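re: the backbone from monday

yeah here it is again, tokenized this time
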């Protein structure tokens, strides 16, 4: 198969007299000099100024409502294929109330299905779906939809 350039009629090709010359790229030694490195004191002052401007010093205080709820968060950490998800679902199935927060809609759906096959009534809450289940004590949701101000419940 010929390339598209070879299929063009000769009249559409540029004439050699109209061709433009592109200037060569500057030599590598033509780069601007690097900025001088800041002293430790200047760097520290710059970072402190940045931290003040961004307001990170008060960041933990911005969760006052969430802290008053007295929720318990359990984080399962371990190497791949070590049973983290299995242990988390075992504990969630035995809880009186709880939530499974997934990063993706498909994982939230799988979490709900996993709990329902164990006989645990579970509601589903994602950006696309809101499926409340009567008497559900567990919610499977995507992280971005979950409210930081509410306890796990199905009445959303």
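seq for it, each position gets an aa:
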């Amino acid at each position: 198969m010929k390339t598209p350039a070879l299929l063009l009629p000769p009249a559409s090709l540029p004439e050699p007299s109209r061709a433009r010359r592109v200037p060569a790229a500057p030599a590598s030694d033509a780069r601007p000099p690097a900025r001088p490195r800041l002293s430790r004191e200047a760097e520290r002052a710059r970072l402190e100024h940045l931290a003040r401007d961004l307001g990170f010093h008060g960041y933990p205080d911005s969760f006052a409502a969430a802290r008053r709820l007295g929720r318990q968060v359990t984080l399962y950490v371990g190497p791949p294929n070590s049973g983290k998800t299995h242990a988390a679902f075992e504990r969630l199935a035995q809880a009186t109330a709880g939530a499974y927060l997934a990063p993706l809609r498909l994982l939230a759906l799988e979490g709900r299905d996993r709990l329902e096959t164990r006989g645990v009534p579970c509601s589903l809450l994602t950006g696309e779906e809101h499926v409340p289940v009567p008497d559900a004590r567990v919610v499977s949701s995507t992280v971005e939809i979950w409210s930081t101000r509410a306890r796990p419940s199905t009445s959303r």
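Strands lie at 98-102, 122-125, 130-131, 138-142. The mean pLDDT is 78.
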